[in-house]
Design a protein that fits this description.
It contains 12 helices and 12 strands. The chain has 295 residues and is α/β, with parallel strands linked by helices. It has a domain of 165 residues.
Length: 295
């Protein structure tokens, strides 16, 4: 089975290199990477590494991806099209700080045995557990957002203030961008089969204008498209993304950076991937995982 791994990265070359080396041990894995064009050091390190590796199964591009903007979904769909053109059977969206946490044999067997299914987290919107500005997460799509115009991370608290004011003005004016459909949300990291990806790729050009100027459209567009798909596709979606993510703050970040303390949690679930590994904190954890799966 041919697997396409769609990877976005912006930091930590050691983690990205370790991931590439792990994935290349899968006999028919194809790796498609987008490094944020502003991450000049990582681009240089990765380019030099790939030149030495000289492996045609790894593709690199360097488009800018600003946090919260349309660009994240855009590059994932670019990479997905490349993987689809390579006739991949499964498509996995991950970051440069992810790893497979089962043996590669178990990984392959799982997808061989479950070829009919696609694994993606989803829930209907609005959702009271996914907070928003009074309309939990539908505000992401209902109102125009400024993430595609201003760099939210660069502008910081100023961005929060001006974007909130911009949305409030739209509320006063009665702006409503929502279309006549049910909307869904979830994380962007999923593993879907060729049938589901073909449908996602076919619908994205029709809907991408609708998801421009939204916040983190990669966390609403895939779910909304697939959960409004024909029944033959919709009924194959499994509401589980196969990924362990630590949804608490650890080492100053949320989701947390993983370390040895998380080994039991990772191994307790039916996960195939985990994120976020970090070369500063995760070396012993990776060693323990490798020992447990006898890599």
């Amino acid at each position: 089975m041919k697997h396409g791994f769609l990877i976005t990265a912006y930091r930590d070359f050691d983690s990205l290199q370790g991931l590439i080396e792990q994935l290349l041990n899968l006999p028919d894995a194809h790796i498609f990477i987008n490094i944020d064009g502003r991450s000049k050091t990582l681009i240089s390190q990765t380019t030099n590494y790939l030149l030495g590796l000289n492996n045609p199964r790894v593709y690199l591009q360097t488009q800018v991806v600003r946090w919260g903007s349309y660009e994240h979904m855009d590059v994932f769909m670019q990479l997905a099209q490349l993987a689809f053109d390579k006739e991949c059977d499964y498509f996995h969206t991950i970051t440069g700080q992810c790893r497979i946490i089962k043996s590669l044999a178990q990984f392959e067997v799982f997808f061989e045995q479950n070829q009919r299914h696609s694994y993606i987290q989803y829930f209907g919107l609005p959702d009271e557990n996914w907070n928003g500005l009074g309309e939990p997460r539908l505000d992401r799509v209902k109102y125009y957002q400024l993430h595609d115009i201003l760099d939210a991370r660069k502008w910081g608290i100023f961005f929060v203030g001006i974007n909130t004011l911009f949305i409030q003005i739209q509320k006063w004016l009665g702006i409503n961008r929502l279309q006549d459909r049910k909307y869904y949300g979830g994380i962007v990291y999923f593993s879907i089969n060729k049938i589901a990806m073909e449908y996602l790729l076919s619908q994205w050009p029709k809907l991408e204008r609708e998801f421009r100027f939204t916040f983190c459209c990669e966390e609403t567009a895939p779910q909304t498209i697939l959960l409004n798909s024909p029944e033959i596709i919709r009924n194959t979606l499994v509401n589980f993304d196969l990924r362990f993510i630590l949804w608490t703050t650890q080492h100053g970040e949320n989701p947390g950076l993983l370390d040895e303390r998380n080994l039991e949690q990772i191994q307790a679930g039916d996960y195939l991937f985990a994120r976020k590994f970090d070369s500063r904190y995760s070396k012993q954890l990776i060693k323990s995982i490798n020992q447990s799966i006898e890599l």
